[in-house]
Design brief:
The complex is a heterodimer.
Chain A (H helix, E strand, L loop, with lengths): L1 E3 L3 E2 L12 E5 L4 E8 L2 E8 L5 E7 L12 E8 L4 E7 L2 E6 L5 E6 L13 E7 L3 E6 L4 E5 L8 E6 L6 E6 L13 E5 L6 E7 L2 E6 L3 E6 L5 E6 L5 E7 L4 E6 L3 E10 L4 E11 L5 E6 L6 E6 L4 E7 L1
Antiparallel strand pairs in A: 1-27, 2-27, 3-4, 4-5, 5-6, 7-8, 8-9, 9-10, 11-12, 12-13, 13-14, 15-16, 17-18, 18-19, 19-20, 21-22, 22-23, 23-24, 25-26, 26-27
Chain B lengths: L4 H23 L4 H15 L2 H8 L7 H12 L4 E3 L1 H21 L5 H16 L4 H18 L4 H14 L6 E2 H5 L14 E3 L9 E5 L5 E6 L5 E3 L32 E2 L17 H13 L12 E3 L4 H6 L5 H9 L1 H13 L18 H6 L2
Parallel strand pairs in B: 1-8, 3-6
Antiparallel strand pairs in B: 2-7, 4-5
Helix pairs in contact in B: 1-2, 1-5, 1-6, 3-10, 4-10, 6-7, 10-13
Classes of the chains: A mainly beta, B mainly alpha.
Chain lengths: 318, 371
């Protein structure tokens, strides 16, 4: 179903962090941007679709002052909004927002860090663009920061702090039905550290929540009611990444067990049911996968990163 | 990231160090008295109350340089003296062994079982000296108290922090290569078969439910691996069967051959482009840790003995492998000086490093010699 393409070499290896691969497709310029986090650095690659041109850039985590030790980055993700695309980088010290090519940092938000370290680690994790002009970022305290993003410029403001969760946020996802203008019943889904089943990856698609667990299971729920549609014993180790191709309903899951799996979700609106079928496996030998994303809305191609690997592996439909 | 890594790092790395020292001391026909004294002195210092209390404070995991400095000091808490080349090799072995254990750890919480495997063996090493044995037990109890109640997510964060610490290290270890745990390119072998971790289900099943929660369909899918049900749960108490074998002593008397390390051909030397000034916090930690290794734990006798852990032919033909330290030495001499000064303050019974004031341009490794 898929075959392996030429990998993209990256300056550093990927760190073992959830969702450690960002992908942004710039159709008008026939380019795709990729981001991979390595400790306190974000490696950006801009790849032309003809496979001939690659350009690299590195972004560092911002330090409030020189005297403190380096701040590790938890996540880097693209936030596509109708008016502009931003790259959001979250770390132990705060949240940085850049223009999507990484050229200019447009906003910095410092997290409240205590003077002496407490047992509770402080960091931001879980990034999502929501509706027309908001970016939501999760924090280790369990809060979700909602930023208001203007059409252009750097006048981004923190407009609200949502305090529904008590535990560290692991992931946030927007409703991505792929149909602009459609009424969304739920805008955003967020997951946290607490509870017996540890959710680390989450997706919201056409009113269905897809959650990836530390037990290697994937659960599909109806967003509004919480009713469980399906349960998949998907992986033999912790799931690190989930992605959906909104136009085709293809689902991608990747885990520490070295496997990437492709599934197909079908909605039957009449019966309000969801079906899931397994389509394909790819094994990245001797690698704990930490990021896997589709490169386009149909799921024609996807890319994968792994801990200690300095390349982005790509697969395309045969 | 996680603020609770240090105690686990020291117990596990320290444990690996003791395994290697124990094996080498026996292989070199060291007297039983000397061997026992070395082990007791190191374990006594490592599990000393002040040192452990410092480690247990919530704080960041710092650089390899700091870890190595403290571990060197721990090794020299005994009457044994290691030359710098031996210490370098020792550190490489320790780190690669722990990296393997963390990477293959089935569930994040099993990091504790790996730690307890180390503690169990350490307890065996000092079983004839109750004073030291008590210190080990006391520390074990503290670890159980602090870590047992942490949620799984916290352990995964801890594990991720450790994996960043070990990133890009692909030093080949002969024992791992021989047992096919490691590939010739230095990367560890990850299996897609065998038992799944405790608490997980074997992959391959999709279950669909109706709106009332009743299962309406089951289907199977090919997993690309061959997985089996989990084995029983390990014991997280002071004593018990840990079940998982990671963290147990690989260097038993059945493997009398020496374990050595080598650089894989394709491995690029780690270059750290960011200016790695030893941050004030890191220096403070170093000073506190060194200070907490009590003076009365230090050997009073002058009759130390030199030990060359690994054969000299090996050293002569291989260049220093731990490229990180060499490169950083060029970039931040000021930090290196500070490091050596702190280390030098605690050099009991050894001559104070005279050349510190004119240390500009000196190799960091030369300064470490003064420890």
């Amino acid at each position: 179903m898929y075959h392996k393409e030429k990998s993209i070499q990256v300056k550093n290896s990927a760190s073992a962090l959830y969702n450690n691969l960002g992908v942004l497709r710039i159709a008008p310029r026939h380019l795709t941007y990729f981001t991979v986090v390595h400790a306190n650095v974000v490696n950006m690659v801009s790849a032309s679709w003809d496979g001939l041109n690659y350009s690299h850039r590195q972004l560092q985590s911002k330090e409030p002052n020189v005297a403190t030790s380096t701040s590790l980055i938890m996540q880097a993700a693209f936030c596509p909004l109708p008016s502009r695309d931003l790259l959001v980088v979250t770390s132990q010290k705060g949240i940085q927002m850049y223009e999507s090519d990484g050229s200019i940092m447009v906003y910095w938000h410092a997290l409240d860090t205590p003077e002496t370290p407490t047992a509770q680690a402080v960091f931001a994790r879980g990034i999502s663009a929501v509706r027309e002009s908001y970016i939501c970022v999760g924090v280790s305290s369990g809060a979700i920061l909602v930023f208001d993003v203007p059409i252009k410029g750097s006048n981004i403001t923190l407009s609200e702090v949502l305090k529904e969760h008590k535990e560290s946020i692991t992931d946030i996802a927007p409703e991505c039905s792929g149909q602009p203008g459609m009424e969304c019943i739920a805008d955003l889904v967020s997951a946290d550290d607490g509870g017996n089943l540890y959710v680390d990856c989450i997706i919201l698609w056409k009113g269905t929540v897809v959650a990836g667990y530390g037990t290697g299971q994937i659960h599909l729920y109806e967003a509004v009611t919480g009713i469980l549609h399906a349960e998949i014993n998907a992986h033999a180790r912790w799931i690190y990444s989930l992605d959906i191709a909104p136009f085709s309903g293809l689902l991608l899951s990747a885990a520490e067990d070295s496997l990437v799996r492709v599934w197909h979700l079908t909605m039957t609106p009449e019966t309000n049911s969801v079906e899931v079928a397994h389509l394909h496996n790819e094994c990245v030998t001797d690698t704990q996968i930490c990021g896997a994303k589709f490169c386009d809305g149909d799921g024609y191609a996807f890319a994968v990163t792994g801990y200690d690997l300095s390349e982005i592996i790509r697969y395309t439909q045969s | 990231m996680s603020e609770r890594t240090l105690p686990l790092v020291f117990i596990n790395l320290g444990g690996e160090m003791l395994y290697i020292l124990d094996q080498r001391l026996h292989a070199l026909n060291t007297s039983d008295d000397n061997s026992e004294k070395v082990m007791n002195d190191i374990v006594g210092t490592m599990f000393g109350k002040d040192f452990m209390d410092e480690l247990l404070k919530p704080q960041q995991l710092y650089s390899h340089r700091t870890m190595k400095t403290v571990l060197t000091r721990l090794a020299h808490a005994s009457i044994m003296r290691l030359n710098p080349a031996s210490m370098d090799r020792l550190y490489e072995l320790m780190v690669m062994a722990f990296k393997y254990q963390v990477l293959l750890c089935p569930r994040p919480k099993d990091l504790l079982l790996i730690t307890y495997n180390h503690i169990d063996t350490i307890r065996e090493f000092v079983k004839d000296t109750p004073v030291v044995g008590n210190k080990v037990d006391e520390t074990h109890r503290k670890i159980i108290e602090i870590y047992s109640s942490l949620p799984e997510g916290e352990f995964q964060l801890l594990r991720q922090t450790l994996l960043i610490f070990f990133q890009d290290m692909h030093i080949r270890v002969s024992l791992f290569l021989k047992n096919q745990l490691q590939n010739p390119n230095g990367r560890f072998a990850l299996s897609t078969s065998g038992p799944v971790p405790y608490g997980m289900d074997v992959p391959g099943l999709i279950r669909t439910f109706d709106r009332k929660g009743r299962e309406v369909r089951r289907s199977e899918f090919p997993t690309g691996g061959s997985y089996t049900s989990p084995i029983r749960k390990g014991c997280f108490e002071l004593h018990g069967d840990r079940v998982i074998r990671l963290g147990m002593n690989m260097y038993t008397v059945n493997h009398p051959e020496e374990t050595h390390t080598s650089k894989a051909h394709s491995v690029k030397v780690i270059t750290d482009d960011t200016p790695n000034l030893l941050a004030k916090e890191e220096l403070n930690l170093l000073a506190r840790l060194m200070g907490s290794m009590k003076a009365d734990d230090m050997p009073k006798t002058e009759t130390g003995f030199q030990i060359n852990l690994f054969t000299t032919d090996q050293e002569e033909e291989e260049e220093p492998l731990f490229g990180v330290i060499n490169i950083q030495a060029m970039q931040d001499e000021q930090a290196a000086t500070q490091l050596a000064q702190i280390a030098g303050q605690f050099a009991e019974g050894e001559e104070q490093p005279e050349n510190l004031s004119s240390s500009k341009g000196d190799d960091l490794l030369a300064m470490m010699d003064d420890l």
